[in-house]
Amino acid sequence: MIRTCHRPATRFVLGSVAALTLAGCAATPRVDSAPATPAPAVPAPYPSTYVAPAAVPVLIRGAVVLTGTGARLDNTDVLLANGRVSAVGPSLTAPAGARVIEARGKWVTPGLIDVHSHLGVYPSPEVAAHDDGNEATNPSTAQVWAEHSVWPQDPGFEAALAGGVTTLQVLPGSANLIGGRSVVLKNVNAATYQGMKFPDAPQGLKMACGENPKRVYGSRRQSPATRMGNVAGWRAQWIEAQEYARDQALYESRRAAGARDARPVKRDLRLETLAAALRGEIRVHHHCYRADEMAIVLDLAKEFGYRVTAFHHAVEAYKISNLLADNGTCAAMWADWWGFKMESYDGIPENIALVDGAPGSCAIVHSDSPEGIQRLNQEAAKAMAYSQRMGRPIAPEHAIRWITTHAARAIGVDERTGSLEPGKMADVVVWSGNPFSTRALAEQVFIDGALRLDRNAPRREPESDLLLGQPIVEAARTGSTP
Amino acid sequence: MTRRLLPGAALALLFVACCTATFAADSPAASRTLLIRNATVHAATDDGRPLPATDLLLRDGRIAAIGPRLAAPADAAVIEAAGRPVTPGIFGGLGRIGLEEIGLESSTGDYAQRLGQMRPEFDVTLAYNPESMSLGIHRANGITFSVLAPSSESGGSLVSGLGAVVALDGSAPAAPRALFVDLGGDANRLAGGSRAAQFMLLRQAIVEARAPNLVIVHDERLLTPSGRQVLLEFLQGSGPFVFDVDRAADIRQVIALAQREKLRAVIRGGVEAWRVGAELAAAKIPVILDPLENLPYSFDGLGASLESAARLHAAGVVIAFSMRSAEVHDAGKLRQAAGNAVAHGLPWPAALAAVTRAPAEIFGAGERFGVLAPGRVADLVLWSGDPLDVTSLPDLVVAGGVVQPAQSRHTALRDRYQERLGRGAAR
Question: Pick from A126, A346, A389: which is nearest to B297 by CB?
Answer without folding.
Answer: A126
